[in-house]
Specification:
CATH architecture of the largest domain: 3-Layer(aba) Sandwich
CATH topology of the largest domain: Rossmann fold
Shape: globular
Radius of gyration: 20 Å
Distance between the termini: 15 Å
Helix content: 25-40%
Number of strands: 13
CATH class of the largest domain: Alpha Beta
Order of helices and strands: EHEEHEEHHEHEEHEHEHEHEHEHHH
Strand order of the largest sheet: 3-2-1-4-5-6-7
């Protein structure tokens, strides 16, 4: 079985990139096709054979791919997979739109239906100043719906993603939870103590501004680790008790997890791997009672979930959290069901069984 991986763009690091590294362990010879590749901002991909599209040749494409969204469909449709038996697209955007022959099995591991076109459309229109998506959005949304019919099989990372796939694409999907990889224990010395922590990309749907405003009022220390388009605006509104950090090693990140009071999770997540990272160090999570967090955090036992996505609700949640005690052992035990070993077994078995069935039908 000759297999290939396809991912939207290889120019950052996050939960999806950890999924790709695990898939690389299963199929180490599988090349990775993508729209654009930036080795400086995606060092995790150094062990892959990365094959970018024609967009790679455009100046600035590696770092400012959002300027090229109207061309993304064409980039993925230009790839030729005729020499492969199985294509696995890992995507929250355009990678599912690849074109394959009837003899090639296409399995889509969907991180979420394209957020800027569907569930997060309003947030991204504001983030872009409204112009880009208002001009190109209708055409891209039409293409995205058509592209959603191309995979032979959809897999989802969580219940909320499964529901979105059904709602926006009218497709059924089986859930396979993404793998959780525990960061190494470290002796990294921190420059701060007694703080809450956020580990996230700084993009609109993560609602990091809500946390900044809440902690501005609380006056408690908040450390935000991450990068993204909203960093400048968030920095402008943050008071001195809110600090921003980026480009940490895994050892440094582990140090921040180990010493925090809790991880703060203000956004409605598709799954939320960082919630598991925090719990693996015995740290509880304060987050919204929506989305993937409801599948990774046990309210009152491994974290505290609040109902309304407002500054006032988060402030109340932090105060409620501080009145209670949480067991480090319970937090750590919660992560066991999301192990890399479990993911590898389920995903590998699914692909092999699907390929056997596909061969009989062609």
């Amino acid at each position: 079985m000759k297999l290939v991986l396809v991912y939207d763009r290889v120019n950052k690091i996050g939960g999806a990139e950890r999924v790709l590294n695990t898939l690389h362990k299963i199929w180490p010879k599988a090349p990775l096709f993508t729209s654009v590749y930036n080795p400086k901002t995606a060092p995790w991909a150094k062990n892959f054979k990365v094959i970018p599209s024609f967009l790679q040749k455009i100046p600035g494409a590696k770092s400012r791919h959002e300027w090229l969204l109207p061309a993304m469909p064409r980039a993925f449709e230009s790839f030729d997979f005729s020499n492969f038996d199985v294509v696995i697209s890992i995507t929250s955007a355009e990678a599912k739109g690849i074109i394959t022959s009837p003899s090639t099995l296409h399995i889509c591991y969907c991180l979420t239906p394209t957020r800027y076109l569907w569930s997060g459309k309003k947030d991204y229109e504001v983030g872009w100043g409204g112009l880009g998506l208002k001009v190109f959005g209708p055409g891209l949304r039409q293409w995205d719906f058509v592209a959603s019919k191309r995979p032979d099989i959809f897999l989802a990372i969580s219940k909320i993603v499964q529901a979105r796939i059904r709602k926006y694409y009218r497709r059924d999907a089986e859930i396979i939870y993404p793998p959780f990889l525990k960061l190494p224990i470290t002796n990294y010395q921190l420059p701060i103590t007694n703080y809450y922590l956020i580990v996230s990309r700084l993009v609109p749907y993560k609602c990091i501004d809500l946390a900044v405003k809440a902690f501005n009022k609380l006056g408690k220390n908040l450390i935000i680790i991450g990068q993204g388009m909203e960093k400048k605006s968030l920095t402008r509104i943050a008071k001195k008790n809110v600090k921003f950090i980026d480009r940490l090693t895994d050892e440094q990140l582990a140090g921040y997890y180990m010493s925090c009071r809790a991880l703060v999770f203000p956004g409605k997540e598709d799954f939320g791997l960082t919630s598991l990272e925090a719990q693996s160090f015995g740290k509880p999570v304060i987050g919204i009672d929506r989305g993937g967090l409801t599948e990774t955090v046990i309210h009152g036992k491994t974290g505290w979930l609040f109902e309304k996505q407002t500054v006032e609700s988060l402030i109340c949640a932090v105060k409620d959290f501080e009145k209670r005690k949480f067991s480090a052992k319970a937090c750590q035990a919660q992560t066991s069901k999301f192990s890399e070993k479990t993911f590898i077994k389920k995903f590998k078995n699914k692909v092999e069984a699907a390929w056997q069935k596909h061969q009989k039908n062609i």
